[in-house]
Amino acid sequence: MSVVQKCCDCSTVEHKKTVPVCIIVEKVFASCLQKECDPAVVVTLPAGGPFTFVSASFCNGTIDNLIITPIAMTTTARFEFDVEICYSLTLMNPGGMLVTIPNLTLTFHKDIVLYYPETASEFNFNLRVETRSVVLGDPTFTATKITLAIGSYVITKLTACVQLQIPEFGFCPIPHECEEFIPFNPCDEFAESTPPAFFPPQQATVL
Q: What's the CA dihedral at 91, 97, 103, 106 to 10 degrees?
């Protein structure tokens, strides 16, 4: 069997055959997506206002207060937990300087049902979340507080470490050489420039 495979360096390499190999990976057994929104997140402002909103920076959510309750006569379970999303706000003061409000936390409570098969006690499942959060609309200010709406896409995943057999195409080829960062040097641009006229133009000769 001849197989054309795209390899790690994006070049096309033809392999004559594959070899079955076993690898240990974290497999996703179940997943689901939910959209969460808090329309009125209130944050206390520091001194030095009035401020204008610049940006918000969000970390990936983490799971806290997890409770798993298997549902009788099924291969599912009820998962109750809190998703905590840490974030910071960047504001601008009247002098044009940026001010950061760090260590803020947004919490959403989750109560969902996921696939959860019965398994040996030695086998461990992991519950993970991936989040992407955004500020919705324009925040509003008072003298002491900022109020903003935050929406979060939350993907919950039930995973476990397993051994899988997959076809192997061989080791990846040696990658191309790295591109080195070369800092800008104005002298390099000057070296390629065209010299200006060294003398003023002469007056035209009138015959």
A: 10
Residues of the chain with confidence (pLDDT) below 50: 1-7, 10
Q: How does DSSP assign 150-203, residue by residue? A: EEEEEEEEEEEEEEEEEEE--SPPPPPPPPPP----HHHHHHTSPPPPSSPPPP
Asked if 32 contacts 152 with a C-beta cutoff of 8 angstroms, the reply is no
Beta-bridged to residue 59, according to DSSP, are none
Picking from 4, 98, 7, the residue whose alpha carbon sits closest to that of residue 51 is: 98
Collect all residues with Cβ–Cβ distance below 8 Å to 24 and sequence separation of at least 6.
Answer: 161, 162, 163, 164
* Residue 48 in tokens: 């030095």
Beta bridge partners of 78: 69, 113
Residue 5: per-residue pLDDT: 47
